[in-house]
Known about the structure:
Layout: H1 7-15, E1 94-96, E2 100-101, E3 119-124, H2 134-146, E4 155-162, H3 175-186, E5 190-194, H4 196-203, H5 209-214, E6 217-219, E7 222-227, H6 230-235, H7 240-257
Parallel strand pairs: 3-4, 3-5, 5-7
Antiparallel strand pairs: 1-4, 2-4, 6-7
Pfam families: UDG
Organism: Acidovorax facilis
InterPro entries: UDG_Type-4/5, Uracil-DNA_glycosylase-like, Uracil-DNA_glycosylase-like_sf
Amino acid sequence: xxxxxxxRQRAMLQEMGxxxxxxxxxxxxxxxxxxxxxxxxxxxxxxxxxxxxxPAPAVASPPAARAPQPAAPRAPxPAPAVxxxxxxxxxxxxxxxxxxxxxxxxxxxxTPAGLxxxxxxxxxxxxPGEPLGGDAGRLLDNxxxxxxxxxxxxxxxxxxxxxxxxxxxGGDSNIPAALADAVAELQPALVLVLGHxxxxxxxxxxxxxxxxRAGPHQLxxxxxxxxxxxxxxxxSQDVKAAAWADLCRxxxxxxxxxxx
Length: 260
């Protein structure tokens, strides 16, 4: 049995000669006076872990809006080509060569009937001194032979030659008058005009070649027919049939005018 003696009691026992063996007391944690004791809660059981879930797919964030950029200036589109728009198109500066006989050795007695008293052909030529030379000249020769005009001694060709390497500087206003003089002198049954350049220079017409081919024409009161020129036919084989139709029409005009 242990005694709980305070300091005064121990002092009295010592004065009486009584030895008191005192069992040391377990230290007591100091507490704040007047503060209530706080119960320490037992640790809570470990929380049950939820089963792992698949990670949510990453969602790409929308790209940041870009500030609108000014549109680059666009080159102006080329204006569509319009035939005969506005003023008459410029024609090359041309020189008209004097008419020359194409088949001087043809025998008049062998000339087929219905070819009339003569023909005048007006065309642009790269070899005016040799009108039947070169590829275009040879094609022209073949065309005339198909019409049997190589047997006619009075088939003339008035060549048009560009004077400034094809520079578009305007046509020679004297060409129609010079051709009218040639018609008055040679008295052909028909004037055959080959190509757009020749048609504009000889007739003063600016319509597309398709319209010029379809319509009747006159040069110094002589009937005239317009068709493709040999140089164009060399580049465009698909229009040869149309050119032959024009030549047949020219033959028909001459035959109607001179049946003998």
